[in-house]
Amino acid sequence: MARFKPYDLNQTKMIPLSYADQVLEGSFEYALNEIVEEHLDLSVFEHRYHNDATGRLAYDPKVLLKILPYGYYRGIVSSRRIAEACCRDVMFMALSADSRPHFTTIASFVSNLEHEIVSLFGDVLFYASALGLIGKEHFAIDGCKLPSNASKKWSGTHNELDEKRKKLERVAQRIVQRGIASVTGRSRRAPPPLNPTTLAAIARRLPRSKTSSKRTRRSVARPVTVVHAEAHGSGYEAHLLAPLIEATRKGFAELGLDQDVFADVKVTADSGFHSNVVVATVEATGADAYIADRDYRKREPAFTGASRYKARDNASDIPSARLSVSSRL
Q1: Could you count the other beta carbons within 10 Å of the beta carbon of residue 246?
Q2: What is the structure's pLDDT at 92?
Q3: Same structural domain for residues 135 and 228?
């Protein structure tokens, strides 16, 4: 009969741990730690703190600027989960030097970061340029949809939201009818309508903003270096292309990296940015831009009758794979 060495997971072992040894050279954590410690000007955070003479010592912004990007890199965005990771995950403990900030500290730091993010992004851009990570030959512009706090279930066009409101009213009427029947012992075919105040309370969660009923999908560009980024509360993005070019040009000029970065740079954008108005606006910026034409296949004779091949491909028993070729800057 075979014999095996016994093992038991229910045991504890004390292991000496060096946090510095956990951050290995060449890793994302190493680069993040070096950038925050050596290359960012964090004096922009000084105005936040007023504990020079009295008050409790604050967490160093360097700690928060390490664990936040690392958490996002790991797919952890909740302040509670990041705070928990600082107590349980060795890499979080190493980057934070085991300081264990409370989740409310992390949440407050993130919610007020908008005033300092521009300055920090400028420092990162300057550092990337010094390392030669910005080729200044080809800038690719793309957009992506980001999730918001608004639930998709409670978003839609005015007509869709109105239908949801009516549905909630019908549900509310049935609930009232059942309640009356349970008390009186009999049901009513036509219960009295609810007053507007009650209906408004039931449908309070319905958002008032109007959104597009069309679904817009965007691929996420993957360049080596992001040279400029902005967030907008609009699904339509074509009108943002020219302002984005000008903002990038201004950012490089203010940092002293290039007076006109678009002098020798080619700019590409997908068909989501294409329209006659946008093309004219981008031409006025002087950038050498190339925007995919969404109607090219309709006008090009070579694509006439191309749809007849789709049926043959679909009927084929040979499995196929859709390949895409992309290049990183």
Answers
A1: 14
A2: 95
A3: yes
